[in-house]
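Quick one:
INPUT:
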């Protein structure tokens, strides 16, 4: 995978150079077909049925594709809730959302639904899932069974690309910083209750601004406009202007892929290195499905002596 063939006059040369990757270590797939959506992020996977238990080889290849492309897409997967959960469980224990209601008997399922009565939709802004948790989810698997005739895309942005395109001075500065990720400002308005909160309170935790991916070892930017409230080590004004700059940076089109859903498509994204934004441009049409979310671990920055926690 390489961007060396990109027209050098397109975009900012420094950004293009930072995004170039060496194809020599790319995995070879034997049982699935992997079609990259862009050189930076995203791939469509075919030749696999997610409603059946995966063979060891299939599982390893799907996992490799996720590590390489950060978000992977599947078509024509008519999954019921049990099949959806079984696929998720191959990658780890399932996460239960701290505030969202779930279908009877399926606490690990998050319902994604919009129609003509909706006043808001989930995920309509750049974020990584539940980063307010002490151990935020490693990944999320969304299956939509009903999609609008047009619109309703999800945009994904690579946080590796966001980190790698920052200047070395900015990278070094950010590597010494941590940020608070809260949830009350998101969940109170959306779910309107406290009695159903998973742990009796709105989660709020501090994470490093740059995190090391525990599998790939790559560094990524880990602040998002959904949950990140302030940078702990800076004054309020310094924190809000730096966060505004970083939130703008992650919107860079070269870091992104935009997924066009069809009925029974699946998107599987790695929350440790990807942000996403669900575009609500299809009102009053129906867009509906389910998400399972896989537990993750505490974000860390490998080898950093600058961070106290
Ligand atoms: C989400 O999980 O944030 C929603 C994504 C979507 O509906 O596309």
């Amino acid at each position: 995978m390489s961007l060396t063939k990109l027209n050098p006059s397109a975009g900012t040369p420094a950004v293009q150079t930072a995004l170039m990757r060496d194809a020599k270590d790319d995995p070879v797939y034997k049982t699935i077909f992997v079609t990259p959506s862009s050189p930076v992020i995203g791939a469509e996977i075919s030749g696999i049925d997610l409603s059946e238990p995966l063979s060891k080889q299939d599982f390893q290849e799907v996992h490799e594709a996720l590590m390489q492309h950060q978000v992977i897409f599947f078509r024509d997967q008519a999954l019921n809730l049990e099949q959806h959960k079984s696929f998720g469980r191959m990658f780890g224990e399932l996460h239960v959302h701290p505030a969202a209601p779930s279908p009877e008997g399926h606490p690990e399922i998050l319902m994604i639904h919009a129609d003509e009565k909706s006043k808001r939709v989930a995920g309509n802004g750049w974020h990584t899932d539940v980063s307010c948790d002490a151990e935020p989810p490693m990944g999320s698997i969304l299956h939509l069974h009903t999609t609008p005739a047009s619109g309703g895309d999800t945009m994904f942005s690579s946080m590796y690309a966001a980190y790698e395109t920052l200047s070395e001075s900015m990278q070094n500065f950010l590597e010494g910083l941590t940020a608070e990720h809260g949830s009350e400002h998101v969940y109170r308005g959306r779910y309107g209750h406290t009695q159903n909160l998973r742990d009796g309170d709105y989660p709020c935790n501090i994470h490093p601004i740059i995190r090391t991916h525990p599998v790939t070892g790559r560094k990524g930017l880990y602040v998002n406009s959904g949950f990140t409230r302030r940078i702990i080590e800076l004054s309020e004004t310094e924190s809000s202007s730096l966060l505004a700059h970083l939130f703008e940076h992650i919107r860079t089109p070269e870091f992104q892929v935009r997924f066009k859903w069809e009925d029974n498509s699946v998107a599987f994204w790695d929350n440790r290195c990807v942000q996403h934004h669900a575009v609500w441009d299809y009102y009053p049409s129906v867009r509906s499905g389910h998400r399972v979310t896989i537990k993750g671990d505490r974000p860390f920055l490998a080898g950093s002596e600058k961070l106290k926690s």
